[in-house]
Amino acid sequence: MSEPRLVARDVHVKIGDTPILHGASMSVHAGELLAVVGPNGAGKSTFSRAVSGLQPMEQGDVCWGGIPLGELKGRKIARLRAFVPQRAPVPAGVTVREAVELGRSPHIKAFARPTRHDREAVEHALERTGTLEFAERRLTTLSGGELQRVQIAVGLAQEAPVLIADEPTSHLDLGATAIVARLLRRLADDGLSVILVVHDLALAAAIADTVVVMADGRTAATGKPDEVLTRERLSEVWRVDASLDERGALHVNWLGR
Amino acid sequence: MIRLVAAILLALLVYAAPAQAAPRVAALTPFSASTITRLGVRPVVVGQTLGGTDQYLASLRNVPVIPLSHPLGPNMEQLATYNASIVLSSKTWQRGTPAMRRLGMKVYESDPSSIAAVGHETRAIGKILGRTRAANALATKIENDVRAAQQGIKRRPRVLVILGVGRTPYAMLANSWGGDVVAKAGGQLLTQGLRAPSGIARISDEIVVQRNPDIIIAVPHGNPGAINRLAQYYRSNPNWRNTRAVKNNRVYVATGNQLLQPYPGVAATIRSVRAKFLKNY
Amino acid sequence: MTVRRSSVVLTATVALVAAAAASMALGAVHVPLANIWEALTGQAEEGPLRQIIVELRLPRTISALVVGAALGVAGALLQGSLANPLASPDVIGVTGGAGFGAMLTLLAFPSAIALLPVGALVFGITAAAIVFAIGWSGAHAGSIGRVILAGIAITALFGAATTSLMVAFSDRVQSAVFWLAGGLSSDGWSSLSVVWPYFLVGFLMAVFLARPLDRLALGDDVAASLGGRPRLVRLAAAAAAALLASSAAAIAGLLGFLGLVIPHLVRLAGGTASHRFVLPASALCGAALLVAADTLARVVLAPIELPVGPLMVVIGVPLFLWLLREAV
């Protein structure tokens, strides 16, 4: 296998005086879709933010393409990874195209105009996410699913080899979730590394190459979905009696009877 | 013949010299306008506060007037057109002083708030005008007149001088112009314990009743249209009915500006206060 | 889209030029156009008319222009960085601080009247600095809510101090009211010569902040994803706004309305929130509106001057409400 694009080892994070992460690790390769799953409060989002450089770490090694995160500032890190947040504000008076154009800012020098390549990258990001058809509409007029795809388009316009998406489907209906899931899988198939923070185990199992299970601020397991998301682990980490069948459906004994 | 021509020329010269020397003065207050008039200099322009409360000598009726309003006092563009070399302003308009100076005008803020200051201010204005001797003579005359006007005070009644800003009463203290005039005229101001750098202090009707003055002199302040109504109000202010002044029918209303603004003719004001209000001849 | 933006910029430029011309041509004293031209080109002879044009009207027009532009830009910077449509220099304490500084000079130390712009400037910046010190420390440092709450508290504090001064020196309040209402005065270059470096720094910072501010539009996380430093950008934008608004207050008193409304007006008219459009267009529109309002204030009741603040509100509010109705 090729060199991993991201290696994170033994990450510790405190927010205020509260320890959130104490020992989380992951690595991701080209074309890999890695799903970070875990119960609420396990530290999934914090972990994804910490490796992205959005959240200061107490300790831990995070390297992007072999370079420590601490040496990557501003534009440098922005060219290595794009972070798509869980819920971004929807500013008034901004069109889809203008929002996606913002994704090019790490590549445009101060006071310089966008080059043809910049415009092509924006066009390509709009196309890949299926947002080109409403590119001139304002963000305020979009549905939740459309907005989420625009957010991903912003990240794609960044042209970073790794895309980190924090719960992109948690507010979406079934149809919109499926569109985003297919989109992320396609991106990985095209060679992008995708880190997907998600709480929907069935979705993770269906599209991920690798699953990282987080529990109490630690990575509890890493591996292929069917190897990691076993009945025993679901019981241990989520405290439910549930299992994934061969077709990727999640069976839950909801009432514990 | 030659002698005649020479005499005429000499006469013209003598006549023309002082006319040429007369500075162009903008007098923004009645005090400075009266003072320079008495010193033989006619102002090129006088000031008038918004609302038109300033009262000028009748002889200055034809002098152009510029309105004074905040922030700077006169409109600088308008003032500039009169091409004045000296501006006699006051502390009220001191924000305008730097602007006037930048326009090349000599500015003096003259605002006597006591009778004692009138002489001093008169001399200062004379110095600026280059009429020191005349100003000294005028100041000495004013001081002598004031002294004469204070002769033979028989009674010293207990007085409150009330400045009525609308229906809000303020006490005029000894360090205000009106308070000083009444005190010099022989009134005992019942303003003990009240102090204000401006010379006027907010006073409640309760204090007026409690201090129980023999005489109340009300000085309504406002635009000319409102003065009569205010005078009526203060003449029969029901809140004061239990004071000795009301019972003895000794509430007076001073509607002129003589107690509000300094004038060089203050000796006459003292005599008039004694005769009309204090009745202490 | 770009046609719409260009037409907004063009309209604002034409309005500004027209307003500046009117501001030079009109006033308490009638000066023929020929004389104005001669005075400005240095051909006029010494005299009151030349003095009126060169030493009174020109500085006043320039001051109005700079102050209007500064307030427009300050409002745009704050609304952009705090992602709050209600943000104006009031929010970061500048108005409260500058008001206190000016009242301190006007009421407590009237003999030091020349220090009025310095007092407003120093206290405006001090108040903003306190707000920033509180807003950018502790947990949630630099978060919008924290900054705005700190601003409200500090504004209230300085507001109370100002009111106390006005009560303590109630006899002098009259001379201070004009300043609080906001307005320019014909006192030559004196104020501008003191505060121009602060204007310059503020405007320069604004130039460099346009792109970083645009990146804040999609939230702090996206900004950070794009390699920006959202908290630093917010601090820099707020500091630039504090400089501009304090300097504006030093010259023209409290004209908060301008900073609040102009950026909205520009966004509604231009149909975009991009700071590369909103910042320069706000500068143009702010300058045009203030120069026009100041000219009106001088002319309507000449030679008496009306305070510009209330007059501008009277002109600006209907325009603003109309745009608000037209906007989708």
UniProtKB/TrEMBL annotation, chain A:
Pfam family for this entry, one: ABC_tran
Keyword set, alphabetical order: ATP-binding, Nucleotide-binding, Translocase, Transport
InterPro entries: AAA+_ATPase, ABC_transporter-like_ATP-bd, ABC_transporter-like_CS, P-loop_NTPase
PROSITE patterns, per database record: ABC_TRANSPORTER_1 (PS00211), ABC_TRANSPORTER_2 (PS50893)
Name the record gives this protein: ABC transporter ATP-binding protein
GO MF annotations in UniProt: ATP binding
The species this protein was found in: Solirubrobacter deserti
Domain named ABC transporter: residues: 6-241
Keyword Nucleotide-binding among UniProt keywords: yes
UniProtKB/TrEMBL annotation, chain B:
Gene3D superfamilies, per database record: Nitrogenase molybdenum iron protein domain
Annotated ranges, domain Fe/B12 periplasmic-binding: 24-281
Key word Manganese present: no
One family name in Pfam for this protein: Peripla_BP_2
Source superkingdom: Bacteria
Keywords per UniProt: Signal
Signal peptide extent: 1-21
Similarity remark: Belongs to the bacterial solute-binding protein 8 family.
Name under which the protein is recorded: ABC transporter substrate-binding protein
Native source organism of the sequence: Solirubrobacter deserti
From TrEMBL, chain C:
Entry superkingdom: Bacteria
Stretches that traverse the bilayer: 58-78, 90-109, 115-135, 147-169, 189-211, 232-265, 277-297, 304-324
Signal sequence coordinates: 1-27
Keywords for this protein: Cell membrane, Membrane, Signal, Transmembrane, Transmembrane helix, Transport
Topology of this chain in the membrane: Multi-pass membrane protein
Key word NAD present: no
Keyword Transmembrane: yes
Pfam short name (any one): FecCD
Gene3D superfamilies according to UniProt: ABC transporter involved in vitamin B12 uptake, BtuC (1.10.3470.10)
InterPro entries found in the cross-reference section: ABC_BtuC-like, ABC_transptr_permease_BtuC
Location of the protein in the cell: Cell membrane
Family note: Belongs to the binding-protein-dependent transport system permease family. FecCD subfamily.
Name assigned to this protein: Iron ABC transporter permease
Organism for this UniProt entry: Solirubrobacter deserti
Organism lineage string: Bacteria, Bacillati, Actinomycetota, Thermoleophilia, Solirubrobacterales
